[in-house]
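User: I'll paste a sequence; please echo it back and then give the predicted structure.

Assistant: Echoing your sequence first, then the prediction.
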Amino acid sequence: MRVRTPSELGALIRDYRTRLKLDQKSLAEKVGVSRQWIVEVEKGKSGAPLGLVLRTMEALGIVLDAQNETLIAAKDKAKSQATGAYVDINAIVSGARKKKK
């Protein structure tokens, strides 16, 4: 999975939050930020403090992996997909864009 823009990161955070059936207020309380901050990050606000973004990711169970995807063996990728650990960010972003229309 590759996240290249603040909008893609926001879509990922929103996807995880909704999968966990958390509303924005509940996530904000877990992270220690305002609901409005969560709204802005999910919309792709650039310039959000990295520490708060990392804390948000941790609260949702999102793991940051700096591994180069081209180095991942096909069997490892398949294993990740089978266990549900693999997330297709492109599908999440595409789905978010379709909802906006």
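The chain has one domain: 6-100. Helices lie at 6-19, 24-31, 35-42, 50-60, 74-83, 89-100.
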